[in-house]
């Protein structure tokens, strides 16, 4: 396999012992999902050479169904980014135009699928990391409801938001892969007992789809909006009932997300100190100097920025001002979604406000990078499922239609996506 898109950090061909619905199917795995005896780096220098002694729950399930683990995919370091440029192993390249980014943070998984190297991959989605690269690379990506897929063995970035999800060339494969990974796991205390049977059928007629006006607000590219409106028109032709809705608290989504995720990251990344994980520190140094040296050399700029932001926001005196406030904002956003989804079976809008930018275009300004997540992070805040399906071409690049469902309503959005596809 020649990896011209820098989609992989490590290529492997490890066959599971079981046989089942994934028998012989090669599946690539984002490099923040632990794989027994296969190096797992989170695209960070600090984990270079780390070989997990166990498989993540999703990997155990994949192997039991006969899947072949075909490599560990490139990503933004620890999942922090929207382009897969924040990788210690270099940026992944978009198979539709190699001068553009794949999106992130699961960009390697998207490039591997879009570039025809595998038909299925796993990504993780904390604030859009499955859906963003799926949209920008023209593949299908599903972010499951919070708790539906075990996070055991997923190296945590912001654990209250994230889920592992399938990235595939088509909706049927997404449903198939999702049916393998969904279900209860005793090793993840947030895991719920909601398996998915994989019986996806095209079904959209009679469903009510809400179009939140905020999903077509300021900053959404006109070419992208036009393709998504066309897709919504097609859903209407297929018998869906289209209604306008509003999510007034969505304006708080980005600040609430970025405060909370940096707080969680600053705590989760504490274990990379050279003692528990990471290269061994110099033992003759005072402990804080030893830790500092390991962390300074091991973490990239974006990871350090987020650890600092999170540590600041959690510090005594600021905790109430930032962290607690962000939690309140999250509740308002979740309430907006719950209210809209009381009357609608699902919501629809663009996945990303723009097409994939050129390499280097977004990394110059972190705030601009965070802005790109405006249409994906609200879903993680609400905990609901969402799928991105390719829906057209704008400025010669793929555009994604995002369908957002009720909590544990994956079946409804998968069926709608199949009807659309
Ligand atoms: N771009 C978002 C972030 O940097 C989302 C990343 C993700 O979902 N892992 O936090």
Provide a brief overview of the structure.
It contains twelve helices and 14 strands.
Keywords:
421 residues, alpha/beta, Amidase signature (AS) enzymes, two-stranded antiparallel ribbon, 12 helices, globular, binds glutamine, ATP-binding, ligase, transferase activity
Q: Helix coverage percent of residues?
A: 25-40%
- What is the tally of helical segments? 12
CATH topology grouping? Amidase signature (AS) enzymes
Secondary-structure arrangement, i.e. CATH architecture? Alpha-Beta Complex
What is the mean pLDDT? 96
What is the CATH top level name?
A: Alpha Beta
How is the biggest beta sheet arranged? 12 strands, mixed
List ligands, each type once: glutamine
Shape designation: globular
Structural class: alpha/beta
- Low-confidence runs: none
Report the strand count: 14
Sketch the topology as an H/E string, one letter per element. Answer: EEEHEEEHEHEEHEHEHHHHEHHEEH
CATH superfamily: Amidase signature (AS) domain
Active site: 30 (charge relay system), 105 (charge relay system), 129 (acyl-ester intermediate)
Subunit structure: Heterotrimer of A, B and C subunits.
InterPro entries: Amidase, Amidase_CS, Amidase_dom, AS_sf, GatA
Protein name: Glutamyl-tRNA(Gln) amidotransferase subunit A
């Amino acid at each position: 396999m020649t990896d011209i898109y820098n989609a992989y950090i490590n290529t492997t061909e490890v066959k599971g012992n079981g046989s089942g619905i994934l028998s012989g199917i090669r599946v690539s795995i984002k490099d923040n999902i632990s794989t027994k005896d296969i190096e797992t780096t989170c695209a960070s220098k600090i984990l270079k050479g780390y070989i997990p002694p166990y498989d993540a729950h999703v990997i155990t399930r994949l192997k039991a169904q006969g899947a072949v683990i075909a490599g560990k995919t490139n990503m933004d370091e620890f999942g922090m980014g929207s382009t897969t440029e924040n990788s210690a192993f270099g940026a992944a390249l978009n198979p539709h135009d190699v001068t553009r980014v794949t999106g992130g943070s699961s960009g390697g998984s998207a490039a591997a699928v879009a570039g025809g190297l595998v038909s299925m991959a796993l990504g993780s989605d904390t604030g859009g990391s499955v859906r963003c690269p799926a949209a920008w690379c023209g593949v299908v990506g599903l972010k499951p409801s919070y708790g539906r897929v075990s996070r055991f063995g997923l190296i945590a970035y912001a654990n209250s938001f994230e889920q592992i999800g399938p990235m595939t060339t088509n909706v049927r494969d997404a449903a198939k892969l999702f049916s393998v990974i969904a279900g209860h796991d005793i090793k993840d205390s947030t895991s719920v007992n909601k398996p998915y049977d994989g019986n996806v059928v095209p079904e959209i007629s009679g469903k009510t789809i809400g179009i939140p006006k905020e999903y077509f607000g300021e900053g959404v590219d006109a070419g992208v909006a036009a393709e998504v409106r066309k897709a919504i028109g097609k859903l209407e032709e297929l018998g869906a009932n289209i209604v306008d809705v509003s999510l007034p608290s969505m304006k708080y989504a980005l600040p609430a997300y970025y405060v909370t995720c940096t707080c969680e990251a600053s705590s989760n990344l504490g274990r990379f100190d050279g003692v528990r994980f990471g290269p061994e520190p110099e033992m003759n140094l005072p402990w804080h100097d030893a830790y500092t040296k390991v962390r300074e050399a091991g973490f990239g700029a974006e990871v350090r920025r987020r650890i600092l932001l999170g540590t600041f926001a959690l510090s005594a005196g600021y905790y109430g001002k930032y962290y607690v406030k962000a939690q309140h904002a999250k509740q308002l956003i979740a309430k907006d979604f719950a209210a809209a989804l009381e009357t609608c079976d699902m919501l629809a809008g663009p996945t990303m406000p723009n097409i994939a930018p050129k390499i280097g275009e977004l990394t110059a300004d972190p705030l601009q990078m965070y802005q790109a997540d405006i249409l994906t992070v609200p879903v993680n805040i609400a905990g609901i499922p969402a799928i991105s399906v390719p829906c057209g071409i704008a400025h010669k690049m793929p555009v994604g239609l995002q369908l957002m469902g009720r909590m544990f309503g994956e079946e409804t959005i998968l069926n709608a996506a199949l009807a659309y596809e």
